[in-house]
């Protein structure tokens, strides 16, 4: 009897995320007829809210209920009450099922009902995402989705006339699965989330956002083949059932999977590039034992479920970067797959903080990914960054962050990786980070620092002088380094004399915020410089980037590079600057502020303006020289002459030019903005145009756009119509490459009007070519041909033969896609004649490739293969491996179509070798084509 009573008081467990069910102590309870289970299902999805009798009638019979429908509902509910509580007295209210007027309510909580528990877990998961903890969010989503066994209230379809209440619950599952997938992709937990998302997607086949997430998850775990099969299946389903094609979200997911397929060869089958970007460690590093021990303890306690994040904050000058770099170098062996470093310039006085998208692009470049594989948006870049780091051990040092948002996209997402972030601010927004606040050195640590730099013997003989020096330096490592450098330079000076000098040094500038004044130390060291080095020191703060090279410094000063190199070395010996890389120097923010104030006091406005002008001339003329190597066929835009004593670098070839742009593109973008503020809009737009081919070929599309917009605004403000026209056309190019075709067309329309106003016929022709290119991308081939024909006429009138041939080639390309194949072939031959006249071999090769395309479309496959062969020979002679490989791919298609399988195998094998060396996305596709042809022996080809 006691056992029976216990069983009756045991809690009930209701379920509706699948078949409707009720259990007590794990034992299922019979719920009776399907109608009763359907009524219970509605009570459950209302989750404790009142349900009127009319709603039950609508559920079971919709618009055609029997006369006794209401009575039947009451009878079913009465039966359910006895199921829940068999011993309940007649007319007693009961524990579970309550009645009020004409309605009923089931009193359940998250402990009683799977639906409420599901919602509780989803809320917790979303809260984790709000706290920037996607790994925890993904885990909670998996638990929530694991409560589902089928569609809501499944198995009752035959008795339910209105399923809409249950379909709404199903949509909650789909929405949770979408967010779960996003969290997993962010945190590198795709494999854990995949089964739950796969089950949800199977239950909601036409939900494209959900299916797109499933595609991405499959791609992320290396199941690209299944992902692409899924896409093809869904495409057929949508066509058969709805008569539509997959939308943009599915298309983008498919493209991401294809990119993952391409990356699999380079990031999984071959070793990743192992970057080693950490700056040089400070040889005389001292103190900070407590902080180093704390960091070691944190490293030992890092969770295996996610990446480690450590933040180090503190006031300027406390040595945050020095500590981070020192400790990172000590731990580098624990991260054998590489160390990444970036100065985010979060508090730079002369420029905006680095854009996370640009940082990510730089990291992905450093990890060995070709530019064409790097997506445009910061979200997609962050996802790719985390994918590349998944399963590896990489350390990422993010120096001088502005705030939490500045680094949110730059953090690794998978276990085994470590991020170290430094900032002047406490980064409380990074909820999962281990935070450390760095104070100035204690007197004992400061003394240790001096011992490391000067030796214990010298300090032992100094008495109170050491304490005085430490007090003047206020515990800031930078100030101690400057004083120590002075003492090292003069080993015969007693330290009490140096302490007396410091005591006599009266700061002429305001004290630092927080009451600490170390500028007396800076001024004392500054006075030891010769006049020319002192002037260079004052002018260095005018530089627009964190790192300054010898040629730039020489341009700022107006001196010879050899003399300036010695002066920079003198400043470095006095710790007023540091050599961050060989031949490149950096100034600490505190010292920079001191130099800024000194320059304002001692240098005239004219001197400072001239120095800035020489610096901008250096960047403009060097960028122009590099641009000429990237686009030798284009007529250069005239430049204003450089000021006297400007040092101009001239790269010797294409590779050097690209390397120079890669190293300096950020400072060049800042130079565009600085040119505008300095009243030099012509410098701004010329610099922006010089950067364009680098942006285009390296994939820095957003920086291209932002730089062009700054230059446009500067030209407009300066009433420079020529500059506005050229930079609007450049801006249109950036928008076109991003697929923002309507915006590109709008900018081209403005450009066309400006060129017409200026009477620049050749430039108007290029705008027409651009119009045709954008319209062709939109599939508007007839309109595109009209623009290309207009461009051809303008080029002809201007006597611009290469431009005319370019227009003819573009016309033929559009005609081929319209099926006008005979005319397209004639266009290719006409353009080829012009290219041959002017000895433009690249154009000749392009025309042979176009002829191959046209004749292949005409079904004349042997002739197409021969035309492609002519193009291949020319591309090979020019050294254009990518064009050569692409022509080989198409030649193989033509050979296969004509039944020459062996020749196709040879062409594709050659192309595969070229593309594989270039990390091309076609390499994987070619490998599959070769596999489909069979083994070489079966084709009559024998391996050596």
Automatic annotation (TrEMBL):
Residue ranges of every copy of the OmpR/PhoB-type domain listed in the record: 4-108
GO BP, sorted A to Z: phosphorelay signal transduction system; regulation of DNA-templated transcription
Cited Pfam families: AAA_16 (PF13191), BTAD (PF03704), TPR_12 (PF13424), Trans_reg_C (PF00486)
A GO molecular-function annotation: DNA binding
Chaperone in keyword set: no
PANTHER family: TRANSCRIPTIONAL REGULATOR REDD, TRANSCRIPTIONAL REGULATOR REDD-RELATED
Family: Belongs to the AfsR/DnrI/RedD regulatory family.
Record's protein name: SARP family transcriptional regulator
Species assigned in the record: Phytohabitans flavus
């Amino acid at each position: 009897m006691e056992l029976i009573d216990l069983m009756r008081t045991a809690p009930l467990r209701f379920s509706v995320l699948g078949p409707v069910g009720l259990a007590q102590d794990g034992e299922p309870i019979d719920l009776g007829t399907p109608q009763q289970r359907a009524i219970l299902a509605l009570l459950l999805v209302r989750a404790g809210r009142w349900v009127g009798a009319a709603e039950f009638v609508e559920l079971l019979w919709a618009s055609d209920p029997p006369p006794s429908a209401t009575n039947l509902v009451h009878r079913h509910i009465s039966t359910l009450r006895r199921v829940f509580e068999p011993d309940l007295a007649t007319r007693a209210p009961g524990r579970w099922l309550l009645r009020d007027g004409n309605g009923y309510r089931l009193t359940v909580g998250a402990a009683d009902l799977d639906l409420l528990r599901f919602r509780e877990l989803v809320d917790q998961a979303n809260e984790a995402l709000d706290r920037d903890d996607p790994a925890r969010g993904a885990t909670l989503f998996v638990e929530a989705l694991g409560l589902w066994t089928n569609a809501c209230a499944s198995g009752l379809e035959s008795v339910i006339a209105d399923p809409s209440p249950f379909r709404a619950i199903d949509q909650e599952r789909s929405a949770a699965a979408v967010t779960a997938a996003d969290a997993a992709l962010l945190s590198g937990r795709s494999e854990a989330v995949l089964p739950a998302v796969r089950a949800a997607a199977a239950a909601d086949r036409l939900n494209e956002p959900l299916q797109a997430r499933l595609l991405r998850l499959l791609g992320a775990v290396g199941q690209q083949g299944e992902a692409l099969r899924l896409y093809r299946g869904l495409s057929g389903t949508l066509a058969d059932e709805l008569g539509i094609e997959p939308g943009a979200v599915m298309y983008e997911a498919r493209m991401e999977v294809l990119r993952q397929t391409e990356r699999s060869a380079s990031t999984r089958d071959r070793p990743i590039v192992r970057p080693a970007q950490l700056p040089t460690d400070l040889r005389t590093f001292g103190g900070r034992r407590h902080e180093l021990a704390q960091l070691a303890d944190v490293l030992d306690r890092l969770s295996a479920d996610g990446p480690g994040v450590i933040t180090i904050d503190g006031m300027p000058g406390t040595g945050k970067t020095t500590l981070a770099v020192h400790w990172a170098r000590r731990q580098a062996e624990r991260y054998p797959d590489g160390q990444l470093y970036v100065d985010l310039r979060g508090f730079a006085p002369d420029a905006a903080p680095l854009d996370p998208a640009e940082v990510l692009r730089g990291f992905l470049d450093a990890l060995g990914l070709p530019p064409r594989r790097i997506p445009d948006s910061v979200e997609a870049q962050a996802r790719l960054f985390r994918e590349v780091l998944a399963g590896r051990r990489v350390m990422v040092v993010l120096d001088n962050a502005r705030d939490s948002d500045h680094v949110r996209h730059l953090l690794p997402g998978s276990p085994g990786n470590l991020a170290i972030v430094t900032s002047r601010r406490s980064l409380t927004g990074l909820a999962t980070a281990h935070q450390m606040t760095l104070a100035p050195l204690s007197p004992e640590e400061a003394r240790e620092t001096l011992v490391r730099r000067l030796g214990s013997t010298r300090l032992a003989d100094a008495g109170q002088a050491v304490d005085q020096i430490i007090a003047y330096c206020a515990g800031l490592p930078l100030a101690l380094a400057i004083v120590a450098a002075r003492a090292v330079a003069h080993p015969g000076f007693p330290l009490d004399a140096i302490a007396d000098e410091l005591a006599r040094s009266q700061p002429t500038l305001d004290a630092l915020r927080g009451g600490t004044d170390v500028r007396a130390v800076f001024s004392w060291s500054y006075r030891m410089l010769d006049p020319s080095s002192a002037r260079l020191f004052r002018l260095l703060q005018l530089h627009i980037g964190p790192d300054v090279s010898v040629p730039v410094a020489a341009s700022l000063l107006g001196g010879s590079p050899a003399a300036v190199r010695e002066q920079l070395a003198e400043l470095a010996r006095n710790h007023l600057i540091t050599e961050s890389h060989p031949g490149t120097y950096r100034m600490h923010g505190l010292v920079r502020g001191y130099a800024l104030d000194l320059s304002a006091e001692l240098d005239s406005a004219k001197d400072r303006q001239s120095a800035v002008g020489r610096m901008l001339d250096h960047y403009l003329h060097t960028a122009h020289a590099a641009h000429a190597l990237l686009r030798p066929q284009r007529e250069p835009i005239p430049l204003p002459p450089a000021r006297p004593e400007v040092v101009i670098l001239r790269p010797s070839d294409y590779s050097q030019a690209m390397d120079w742009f890669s190293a300096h593109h950020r400072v060049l973008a800042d130079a565009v903005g600085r040119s505008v503020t300095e009243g030099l809009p012509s410098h701004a737009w010329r610099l922006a145009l010089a950067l364009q081919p680098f942006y285009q070929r390296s994939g820095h599309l957003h920086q291209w756009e932002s730089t062009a917009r700054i230059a446009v605004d500067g030209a407009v403000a300066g009433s420079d119509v020529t500059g506005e026209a050229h930079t609007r056309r450049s801006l249109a190019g950036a928008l076109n490459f991003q697929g923002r075709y309507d915006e590109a067309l709008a900018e081209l329309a403005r450009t066309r009007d400006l060129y017409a106003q200026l009477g620049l016929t050749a430039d108007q022709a290029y705008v027409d070519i651009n119009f045709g290119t954008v319209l062709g991308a939109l599939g508007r081939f007839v309109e595109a041909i009209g623009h290309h024909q207009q461009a051809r006429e303008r080029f002809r009138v201007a006597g611009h033969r290469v431009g005319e041939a370019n227009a003819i080639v573009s016309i033929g390309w559009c005609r081929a896609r319209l099926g006008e194949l005979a005319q397209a072939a004639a266009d290719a031959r006409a353009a080829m004649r012009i290219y041959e006249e002017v000895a433009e071999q690249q154009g000749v090769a392009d025309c042979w490739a176009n002829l191959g395309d046209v004749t292949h479309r005409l079904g004349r496959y042997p002739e197409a293969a021969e035309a492609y062969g002519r193009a291949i020979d020319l591309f090979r002679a020019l050294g254009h491996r990518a064009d050569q490989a692409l022509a080989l791919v198409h030649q193989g298609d033509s050979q296969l179509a004509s039944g020459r399988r062996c020749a196709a195998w040879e062409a594709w094998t050659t192309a595969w070798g070229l593309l594989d060396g270039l990390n091309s996305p076609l390499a994987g596709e070619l490998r599959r084509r070769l596999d489909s042809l069979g083994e070489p022996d079966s084709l009559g080809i024998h391996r050596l």
